[in-house]
Specification:
7-stranded mixed sheet; alpha/beta; Leucine Aminopeptidase, subunit E, domain 1; 7 strands; binds ligand AR6
């Protein structure tokens, strides 16, 4: 599914984010910037050691923060590492909002034109996927309505069921606002 928010294409796809050819992909990181399992594990396996090496110089970071490294051997030139909330630590919704908006801002500040997000925090960190879809899509749509050089923002969902949840939520948000073209 694909909609346009002002000048930016917002797209949902199902698949492995490490196969995305956007200029940047987002890693669902931890505050230590140690690439563990899930998205991070796939990035480490496919991207090679340069990514963790750069992370070691940048970490630790904060929940909701975002930092950039090389994409190593990935198709994406850059990885934007952002830390989502771990379920149960408190103020999770705001932390997920910050992680999303800080990733988008970092991309813009670095003149990056395209970005792919996973469903941050919905794996090892245990955040519900429907709430993640609502927050990440709302935050991204609001951001793209403002000043941005981003040409494409992609949400890459690993499973068909997560894709369907994001698709239903995007349809709901777009029809409530009538802001897509
Ligand atoms: N492509 C796209 N989505 C994926 C992929 C992939 N290759 N692999 C998993 N997902 P997670 P978190 C989905 O656990 O919950 C790591 O150890 C997955 O199904 O990657 O934020 C880090 O180092 C889920 O929907 O991130 C941190 O310590 C979503 O991506 C911690 O996990 C996020 O799952 C971060 O946990």
């Amino acid at each position: 599914m694909r909609v346009k928010i002002n000048n930016t294409i917002l797209e949902l796809v199902q698949g492995d984010i490490t196969e995305q050819s956007t200029e940047s992909i987002v890693n669902a990181a931890n505050t230590q910037l140690l690439l563990g399992g899930g998205v991070a594990g796939a990035i480490r396996a496919k991207g090679g050691p340069a990514i963790q090496q750069q992370c070691n110089k940048l970490g630790p970071t904060t929940v909701g923060g975002a930092v950039k490294t090389t994409g190593g051997n990935l198709k994406a030139k850059y990885v934007i590492h952002t830390v989502g909330p771990r379920m149960g630590q408190g103020d999770e919704d705001n932390k997920l909002r910050s992680a999303t908006v800080n990733s988008l801002k970092l991309a813009d500040n670095e003149n990056i034109k395209s970005i792919s997000f996973p469903a941050i925090s919905t794996g090892i960190f245990g955040f519900p996927v429907d709430r993640c879809a609502e927050i990440m899509l709302r935050t991204t749509i609001d951001y793209l309505k403002g000043q941005t050089q981003l040409e494409q923002a992609v949400f890459c969902l690993f499973t068909k069921s997560d894709f369907n949840i994001f698709q239903d939520e995007l349809k709901r948000q777009i029809s409530n606002e009538g802001n897509a073209s």
